[in-house]
């Protein structure tokens, strides 16, 4: 990433921790939640890899096209899952954003770590994705505000099945996406 290395490493830590937590969420008893958590883990680890500062590591030439293919496949899976519910559209948009970033990085490998700078390849797409993720952060952040007087407090639900933790996971990745997209 362009900019201070410390912000890049903070993004790496945030995305890797989110990916690791999503792997743990895959232990849920609900199959749909396991599937969503798997996609989110892939997204978290992919974003962590993309956020590694350029001075620390330069990936091989094949890494970005391979990443684009992996996230393209994840996008197709999210598109297929969207038949069952619109909640999967966020995963589709996230996978599309990852494909966009990987393609941009592959196209600009000569710029060190593949960042083109300021959405040079397609500023309209980058801007649209940025607007989507900013709106998603605001809406999801508002939904995380606790409602007073919730009966039971969710004590009978397993920690992997708590919807507020899944939202917090998605919120963390959306915040990271908001930080990463302007550097494209």
Describe this structure in words.
- Helices cover 65% and strands 0% of the residues.
- The chain has helices at residues 5-25, 31-51, 63-81, 89-107, 123-143, 163-180.
- It is globular, with a radius of gyration of 17 Å.
- Residues 112-119 have low confidence and may be disordered.
List the helices and strands and how they pair.
Layout: H1 5-25, H2 31-51, H3 63-81, H4 89-107, H5 123-143, H6 163-180
Helix pairs in contact: 1-2, 1-6, 2-4, 2-6, 3-4, 5-6
Oligomer: single chain
- Helicity level, as a percent range? 55-70%
The count of strands amounts to: 0
The major β-sheet equals: none
Q: What spatial form do the alpha-carbon principal axes imply?
A: globular
Q: What portion of the residues fall into strands of 2 or more residues?
A: under 5%
Helix vs. strand class: mainly alpha
Parts with pLDDT < 50 across at least 5 consecutive residues: 112-119
Order of helices and strands: HHHHHH
Overall pLDDT confidence: 83
Radius of gyration over alpha carbons?
17 Å
Taking the alpha carbons of the first and last residues, their distance comes to 9 Å
């Amino acid at each position: 990433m362009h900019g201070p290395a410390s912000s890049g490493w903070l993004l790496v830590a945030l995305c890797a921790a989110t990916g690791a937590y999503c792997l743990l969420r895959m232990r849920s008893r609900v199959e749909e939640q396991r599937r969503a958590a798997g996609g989110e883990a892939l997204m978290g680890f992919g974003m962590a890899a993309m956020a590694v500062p350029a001075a620390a590591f330069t990936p091989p030439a094949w890494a970005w096209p391979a990443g684009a293919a992996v996230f393209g496949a994840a996008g197709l899976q999210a598109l297929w899952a969207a038949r069952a519910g619109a909640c999967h559209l966020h995963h589709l948009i996230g996978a599309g954003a990852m494909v966009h970033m990987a393609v941009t990085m592959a196209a600009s490998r000569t710029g060190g770590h593949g960042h083109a700078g300021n959405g040079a390849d397609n500023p309209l797409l980058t801007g649209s994705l940025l607007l989507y993720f900013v709106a998603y952060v605001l809406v999801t952040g508002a939904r995380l505000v606790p409602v007073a007087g919730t009966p039971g407090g969710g004590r009978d639900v397993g920690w992997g099945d708590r919807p507020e933790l899944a939202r917090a996971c998605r919120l963390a990745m959306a915040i990271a996406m908001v930080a990463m997209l302007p550097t494209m």
